[in-house]
Amino acid sequence: MKFGVLVSATVLAARLAHAVPTSIADAIMSRASRDGIDLSVLDTMPDILAAITDTYNERGVQYPQDDRKKAARVGSRGVGNIFDIHAHAEPDWYRKVAPFTGGNADRNDGGGTPSPAWNVSSHLDFMQTIGISHSILGFTSPSANAFLGDKERTVALARLINEQLAAYARTYPDSFNFFAAMPLPYTDEAITELKYAVQELGAVGVALMSNHEGHYLGYDSFTPFWQAMDGLGGRQVVYVHPTTPWLNVNETWIPANPYSDIDESRMEFYMETARTFIDLTLTQTIHNFTNTHFVLPHIGGAFPTMIDRVLKTVHTELYESSLEIYRTRFWWDSASPTYFHQINGLLAYDIPKANLLYGTDYPFISAAVTAADFDSIMAYPGLSDEEKEDLLSNNYKTLFGDKLHFQ
Ligand SMILES: *[C@@H]1O[C@H](CO)[C@@H](O)[C@H](O)[C@H]1NC(C)=O
Ligand SMILES: *[C@@H]1O[C@H](CO)[C@@H](O)[C@H](O)[C@H]1NC(C)=O
Ligand SMILES: *[C@@H]1O[C@H](CO)[C@@H](O)[C@H](O)[C@H]1NC(C)=O
Asked: Which ligand is nearest to the CA of 219?
């Protein structure tokens, strides 16, 4: 009898597993077509929809009907209370689209770092090792910009990335939230995706690349996007991730990196962070959209080094107002080895310690290196024990406010 119950439960589960995929895929496709997006331009669409469906089915979670205004739930899974704001999802289907980080689908020349294998269970294991209870997932470079110059595929890829991220966040609500990918430089489509990701899928912010098809974030055509975001109501969080410095020369995309001896993520990503935040400053994008807060990767990369250089020589009129913004609406993640020495350069600008956040860059930085980085934070003499605890487990609460509901 017991055996019989077990069999019928298994059969039922199999039937459900068979029935549910179609409906999730249908729902995703019908919302995409409602928003003018043709997902079928990606020839891997069926695999991607199957992967997203599998994510929901792992724990029998429903596809979101409407997440509007629902604050995401954040728990502490009892493994420490550390919050990771710089963490990447890298599902197998995405590694097929973009095998190299910083490269793109048509560029298998090894110019980027080969994207590491990743899955939810290895990510959860990693979190357990470090004592991280919650991670905000985003896709790393090239994110939705894997098909340079191809609007339809960029827009479709952004949508599917966001559906996949929402599936992780829905399925593991105590462990994950997400930053949505945006199909810039296509501003109108990015505004549509922004509203969908934030209002319907429940993204806690957006992840922008340092440049989108060679355009830095202060680019004129992006202003309506900043306007739309700032006008969504309440605080908006923009996480910026460095990417390859793309130049379009004579209709050909080339990475503007004359130094090819090490991969672009090592040095160019720091330069990229500097370029785009200088651009956001000089165009006064950061001045004009006052609801918008920025998370800077790697405690700003090479950006802090450039501040005096640029704003004490040219555009001196922006110096004080910019520093004021860097000290209030800018937040600085610790990802990769930043607390051995680099942190001193940032803090020299009187950046409040309450704006320091913890980030890992997993899976691009291994658990062993992350542990060493963690130790360097703990050994850093410039922060008190309380300030270190806040960096790891509290400052993000001030950043996200009512976007996250703390258990
Ligand atoms: C997840 O990734 C880890 C590390 O790459 C691997 O050992 C493991 O087999 C993977 N698990 C699944 C379910 O794919
Ligand atoms: C651009 O392409 C045209 C036509 O192929 C060629 O004549 C020209 O030299 C190219 N310019 C550069 C800068 O490569
Ligand atoms: C911000 O406002 C200033 C005027 O105060 C204007 O000159 C500048 O172009 C604006 N920049 C953006 C990106 O809106």
From this structure: 3
Tell me the mean pLDDT in the region 184-212.
97
What domains are defined for the chain? 71-406 (3.20.20.140)
Supply the residue whose CA is at minimum distance from atom 14 of ligand 3.
285
Digit-coded pLDDT (tens) for 352-365: 999 999 999 999 99
Q: 106 falls in which pLDDT band (50, 70, 90)?
A: low
Distance CA 229, CA 28 (A): 23
CA distance 115 to 226: 30
Q: Which pLDDT band holds residue 72 (cuts at 50, 70, 90)?
A: low
Q: Rounded to 5 degrees, what angle do the CA atoms 355, 357, 361 make?
A: 145
Nearest CA to ligand 3 atom 5: 288
Single out the residue of 245, 96, 100, 73 nearest to residue 176, CA to CA.
73
Which residues have C-beta atoms less than 6 Å from ligand 1? 117, 119, 121-122
pTM, to two decimals: 0.91
Task: Using the mean position of ligand 3's atoms as its centre, give its distance from the Cα of residue 288 in Å.
Answer: 6
Tokens standing for residue 13? 């589960």
61 vs 15, 121, 133, 168, 240, CA distance in Å?
15, 17, 21, 10, 30
Q: What is the DSSP letter of 57?
A: H
Q: Cβ–Cβ contacts within 10 Å for residue 214, how many?
A: 17
Whether pLDDT at 107 is above 90: no
Q: 271 C-alpha vs ligand 2 centroid, how far in Å?
A: 28
Instruction: Say if CB 204 and CB 166 are below 8 A apart.
Output: no
Query: How many other CB atoms are there within 10 angstroms of residue 113's CB atom?
Result: 18
- 121 Cα–ligand 1 center, Å: 7
| Across 253-276, average pLDDT | 88
Ligand index nearest the alpha carbon of residue 95: 1
**Mutual orientation of helices 120-130 and 367-379 as an angle, nearest 10°?**
30
Residue 288 CA: nearest ligand 3 atom is 1
Question: What tens digit of pLDDT does each residue of 328-349 get?
Answer: 999 999 998 999 999 999 999 9
